[in-house]
C-alpha cells in the first residue's frame, strides 16, 4: 500500500453505492428479486491487496450496511459484504502469483494480472458473495435448491458482464 | 491481555468476521420480518426439542421414585378392591340392605374398610426344605404385624411370623403350618389350602365335599372366612380332584397361581379387625 490509495477507494465506494442503491436495486424490485445485479462487492474486491484483513472485513460490512439503507434490508448486505471480504483473502491466496503479492500491484485489477486471472478471481468472488447473500435472504436451508441456487446463478450471470464492462471502462490502477 | 492481542493478530480476520456476522444476524432477525419469523420458529423448535429431552431425562432419573409411587398406588388399589369385595357382601346382606335404606347417606358406616396393604419386596426365599421361609424388606416401622397375610398380584405367598424394625420373616405357602381358608370359585364350601405333598409345584385343598363337580381348571380363591388374606384373592388352579376312599371329601391338587419360586413384589395384608376377631375366637374356646 503506497501513496494514493485512499481517494480511489472512496470514489469507488460512493459511485458503486450510488449505482447500486439508486439504479440496480430498482431492477431487482422489478424482477421480483429474481435478477439481482450486485455491483457493490466490486468495491470490496478492489480494496488494496495488502490491506489488513480485519479492516477489509469492517469496510465490507459498512459498505453492505450502506446498501442496506437503500434497499431497506438492514443486515442482509452487511452480512454478505463482511463474509465476502473474508472470502476475498482466501480467494486471492488461492490465485496468488508465484512468489506471492509483493505490493507492486496495489489492487487485484486486470491491468496488473491480466484479464483471464481477473475473470477467474471475480467469478469465484461474486459467486461466493451471491451465494451468501441469497442464503441469508431466504434464511432457511429448505429453500436451497428451489430458490437460493437458481437465483444465485441467474444473478451471477447478469452481474459479471456488468462488472467486466465497468472494469474495462475505468481500468482501475489504485 | 498480551496473549489476547497476539490471538487477534493471528486470527484477527476470523474474529472480525464472527463479530460482524453476529451483528449482521442480529440486525437481520430484528429488522426484517420474514427472517425474523423463520428465526423465531427455528428457535422455538430447538427450544421445544431441548425441553423435551430435558423432560425425558428427568423422567428417566425419576423412574425409581415413579416405581415406588406406582407400587404404593397399587397397594392402595389392591386394598380398595379387597375392601370392595368385603363391602359387597354387606350390601347383599339383608341387614345391610335395611341398614342402607334406613340410613341412606350414612352408607359409609356399613362399608368399613377392612384391609390395609403394604407393598414390599421379597429379599430372601427358601424352597429346598420342609419348612420354607421368606424375608420381606418391610418391618414393624412400616406397619407390618405378625400373623399378617402376604400376597402377590397373582396369588398367595405366605404368613408373617416374626417382625423386626425393618424386616419381616414369613412362612411360605410351602410350610406345613401355613393353612389358608380357601374355596373353589362358584361354590359356597370352603376348605383348607396347604402344602400336603413333597412337590413344591402343588398345594392341596381339603375338606371340599365330594358331591361338588370340581374340574381341572377351576379357580381356587381365598374364602370369606380367612382372617389373613383378602377374600376372593386368587390362590390356585385345580389340577386334579378325586374322592378319598372311605371319606366324604375330595382330595384336590392345586397349582398355585403364584409360583413359590420367583416371588418378588409382594403386599403384606393388614386386617384391621384381625385382633378383634382373634379375641372373639379365644372367648369362644373359653365358653366351651
Written overview of the protein:
The complex is a heterodimer of chains A (174) and B (288). Chain A is mainly α and 174 residues long. Chain A is 71% helix and 0% strand. Chain A is built from seven helices and no strands. In chain A, helix 4 packs antiparallel against helix 6. The radius of gyration of chain A is 15 Å and the shape is globular. The N and C termini of chain A lie close together (9 Å). In chain A, 40% of the residues are buried. Chain B is of the alpha+beta class. In chain B, the strands form two sheets. Chain B has a six-stranded antiparallel barrel with strand order 1-2-5-4-3-12. Chain B has a six-stranded antiparallel beta barrel with strand order 6-7-8-11-10-9. In chain B, helix 1 crosses helix 2. The longest helix of chain B has 30 residues. Chain B is elongated and about 110 Å long. About 2% of the residues of chain B have low confidence. At the A-B interface, helix 3 and helix 4 of A face helix 1 and helix 2 of B.
Name a few traits of the molecule.
heterodimer; A: 174 residues; mainly alpha; 7 helices; globular; B: 288 residues; alpha+beta; six-stranded antiparallel barrel; 12 strands; elongated
Give a short summary of the structure:
The complex is a heterodimer of chains A (about 170) and B (about 290). Chain A is mostly helical.
What oligomeric state do these chains adopt? Answer: heterodimer
What is the overall silhouette of chain B? elongated
Share of residues in helices of chain B: 25-40%
Listing every helix as H and every strand as E from the N terminus to the C terminus, the arrangement of chain B reads: HHHHEEEEEEEEEEEEH
Spatial gap, N to C terminus of chain B: 102 Å
Radius of gyration of chain B: 32 Å
Report the count of strand segments of chain A: 0
Q: Which strand order spans the largest sheet of chain B, edge to edge or round the barrel?
A: 1-2-5-4-3-12
In round numbers, the mean pLDDT of chain A is 88
Poorly predicted regions of chain B: 105-109
Biggest sheet record of chain A: none
Described by strand count, sense and barrel closure, the largest sheet of chain B is: 6 strands, antiparallel, barrel
Specify the structural class of chain B.
alpha+beta
| Helix content bin of chain A | over 70%
Amino acid at each position: 500500500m503506497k501513496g494514493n490509495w485512499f481517494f480511489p477507494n472512496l470514489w469507488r465506494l460512493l459511485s458503486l453505492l450510488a449505482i447500486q442503491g439508486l439504479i440496480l436495486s430498482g431492477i431487482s424490485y422489478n424482477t421480483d428479486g429474481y435478477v439481482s445485479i450486485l455491483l457493490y462487492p466490486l468495491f470490496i474486491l478492489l480494496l488494496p491487496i495488502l490491506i489488513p484483513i480485519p479492516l477489509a472485513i469492517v469496510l465490507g460490512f459498512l459498505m453492505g450496511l450502506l446498501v442496506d439503507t437503500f434497499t431497506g434490508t438492514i443486515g442482509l448486505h452487511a452480512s454478505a459484504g463482511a463474509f465476502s471480504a473474508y472470502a476475498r483473502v482466501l480467494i486471492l491466496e488461492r490465485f496468488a502469483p508465484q512468489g506471492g503479492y509483493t505490493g507492486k500491484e496495489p489492487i487485484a485489477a486486470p491491468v496488473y494480472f491480466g484479464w483471464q486471472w481477473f475473470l477467474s478471481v471475480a467469478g469465484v468472488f461474486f459467486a461466493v458473495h451471491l451465494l451468501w447473500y441469497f442464503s441469508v435472504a431466504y434464511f432457511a436451508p429448505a429453500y436451497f435448491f428451489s430458490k437460493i441456487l437458481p437465483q444465485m446463478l441467474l444473478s451471477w450471470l447478469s452481474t459479471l458482464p456488468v462488472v467486466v464492462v465497468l472494469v474495462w471502462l475505468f481500468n482501475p490502477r489504485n | 491481555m498480551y496473549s489476547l492481542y497476539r490471538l487477534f493478530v493471528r486470527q484477527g480476520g476470523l474474529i472480525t468476521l464472527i463479530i460482524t456476522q453476529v451483528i449482521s444476524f442480529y440486525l437481520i432477525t430484528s429488522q426484517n420480518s420474514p427472517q425474523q419469523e423463520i428465526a423465531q420458529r427455528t428457535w422455538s423448535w430447538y427450544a421445544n426439542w431441548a425441553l423435551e429431552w430435558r423432560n425425558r431425562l428427568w423422567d428417566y432419573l425419576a423412574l425409581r421414585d415413579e416405581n415406588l409411587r406406582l407400587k404404593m398406588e397399587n397397594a392402595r388399589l389392591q386394598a380398595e378392591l379387597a375392601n370392595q369385595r368385603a363391602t359387597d357382601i354387606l350390601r347383599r346382606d339383608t341387614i345391610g340392605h335395611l341398614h342402607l335404606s334406613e340410613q341412606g347417606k350414612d352408607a359409609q358406616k356399613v362399608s368399613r374398610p377392612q384391609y390395609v396393604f403394604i407393598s414390599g419386596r421379597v429379599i430372601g426365599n427358601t424352597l429346598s426344605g420342609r419348612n420354607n421361609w421368606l424375608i420381606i424388606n418391610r418391618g414393624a416401622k412400616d406397619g407390618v404385624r405378625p400373623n399378617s397375610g402376604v400376597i402377590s398380584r397373582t396369588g398367595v405367598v405366605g404368613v408373617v411370623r416374626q417382625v423386626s424394625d425393618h424386616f419381616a420373616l414369613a412362612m411360605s405357602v410351602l410350610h406345613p403350618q401355613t393353612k389358608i381358608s380357601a374355596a373353589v370359585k362358584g361354590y359356597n364350601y370352603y376348605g383348607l389350602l396347604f402344602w400336603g405333598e413333597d412337590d413344591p409345584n402343588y398345594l392341596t385343598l381339603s375338606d371340599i365335599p365330594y358331591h361338588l363337580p370340581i374340574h381341572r381348571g377351576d379357580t381356587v380363591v381365598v374364602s370369606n372366612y380367612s382372617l389373613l388374606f383378602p377374600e376372593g384373592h386368587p390362590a390356585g388352579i385345580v389340577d386334579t380332584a378325586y374322592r378319598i376312599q372311605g371319606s366324604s371329601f375330595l382330595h384336590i391338587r392345586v397349582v398355585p397361581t403364584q409360583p413359590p419360586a420367583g416371588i418378588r413384589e409382594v403386599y403384606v395384608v393388614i386386617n384391621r379387625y384381625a385382633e378383634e376377631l382373634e379375641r372373639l375366637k379365644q372367648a369362644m374356646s373359653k365358653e366351651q
